[in-house]
Model the fold of this input.
Amino acid sequence: MNTDSFSEENLVVADSDAQSKRRQFLRHGAAAVTGALAASAGLRSAIAATPPAAAGDAAPAAQGTLSIPPWSTQPGAQVGSHPYGTPSHFESGVIRHLRKTDKQYFSSSTRSPLQELDGIITPNGLFYERHHNGIPDIDPAGHRLVLHGLVEQSLEFTVNDIRRFPSHSQIYFLECSGNPGYTVHAKTAAEANGLVSCAEWTGVLLKTVLKEAGLKPEAKWIIAEGADGAGMTRSIPLEKCLDDAMLVYSQNGERLRPEQGYPLRLLLPGYEGNMNIKWLRRLQVADRPVHSREETSKYTDSLPDGKAREFTFVMEAKSIITSPSGNQQVEGHGFHEIKGIAWSGKGRITKVEVSVDDGKTWQAAVLQEPVLSKALTRFVFPWQWNGESVVIQSRATDETGYTQPTLDALVEVRGVNGTYHNNAITPWRVAADGKVTHALA
Amino acid sequence: MRLHNNPHVTTRRCRPMLAALGCAAMLLTAAQGAYAEQKFGFGHPISQQQLAAWDINVFADGGNLPAGSGTVAQGRDLYAQQCASCHGAKGEGGLGDKLVGGKNTLASDKPVKTVGSFWPYAPTLFDYIRRAMPLTAPQTLSNDQVYAVTAYVLQLNGLIPEDAKLDAKSLAAIRMPNRDGFVPDPRPDVPQAGGDANTSAQHKAIEQAH
Done:
């Protein structure tokens, strides 16, 4: 299964887990199936007639004689046996990556396994997480959103009230601002950039709801607050609130997951993840930002001269090759498709260039449709690998003309202690034996 | 999808006029314009008194600090009971952030960012403790208790004397050492001299790493 798991620790666990399951299946497959179907005498005789050797050859051979695999000679699981579907257990290693070295896990994060995913939509169960005091278990019937401050009429909304407004659906990426730090040379794509994910969000445009309360002329900022134990609080410029900001209740067609803010969250397309307040309970309209802890002592970008940038909202253009990527193995010379994702908080991706010669030359990759504003965009690039050790990398350009920089170029301006908004190119080295590692590590 | 900001509304508005084929684009604009002006009457008016328990944002200038007060001495006791297990007996950090020290480190290779060295506004400390601390029981301290713990953390950083008592006015009057330590976002900040300059630097970095 995945030779390309997300960390060395996980690699071992995932592979041994899957292999042991597979061995178990191969060893006991026919017997287990026979037992499960004991009630069905007719089928039972059919299965008993299956030569035991067939199960042992379950994986169809690339060469030689094909046998009939056991899953072709018996019924599958009964319809309705998985009322909420989950991936095949053979994919049990495709999970969010949790860093194992944190001091505690109330305020922590998990990363989306980018190297395992295709397309531009992140499955809800694999969407990255960042929580500041755990995941609250909120009864939507008891949840309220209060809109107050510099408004004509303070209002309280139930979740059903919010759902009555005209709905709005759009595909947007969401990215934690610390994805990754400036000194992290990750082993895998997940470790490097796994704090980004993308979904179709459904809710109501925030400006529609603001109109209900009526903004006073002095209104300039809106302070959003979560109902979680962190009471996460961020100040958002009013222009963003009147532009594409959304109050979201659904993600990829179903209600938000608890980890993503159930039953209601704020979504600020292109802005750093932390501002997209989950479990949203309050919006205070104000004439100035509140300067919360999360927008002063955290989520500010420290510079070499000791100053720190504040209110650094936008996630700039970025891309990463997800296949082949760190910890993966390139098997065989000849054609390989380089695959990856690109995104920009400032609009559409207009170009992704790929270099397959240590950065000496760059060629345009193919952007796969759809190419949407502030959404992940999938790129592919045909590559012939001749078996030499080589560095492959990608760089994105967005509709403003901005091109993703190298880490050196960023560090030259910002130093290494900025923590946030590192949108540098991630170069991967493919060694002569096909093993892929971070080229700067 | 991109074109149709709100297909639901558009469809609804267009339905009675289906005969007028070809009007879709114009109707879309018209419908959205009308929709933008529309009020729906959803939600329920709520008074300041009704929402008071949630009205906890404290502004950097001390705006919306509540009545009440607390002393450093009271804060020392509370801190020992509620905070020290994560933040250390004297704010040196542990499971939780380091709260004290770091003076003159911000411009060094290893900046130590604490309440004393980094936080620009003292009222923010009150806001954060009240809403988020202690981690295991946030929003359970009284306003007096929050003033007291705030006072103790500020005193640990040498910013107020040991016999100090804080209330809305005195907390807002404290000037934090790093008050002027923040600058606006200048991005895009990386020279866009074209890919070539970046390319050669990257090439060098990769060679070095190799």
About this structure: The first helix of chain A runs from residue 8 to 36. Residues 318-438 of chain A form a domain with the Immunoglobulin-like fold (CATH 2.60.40.650). The first strand of chain A starts at residue 97 and ends at 98.
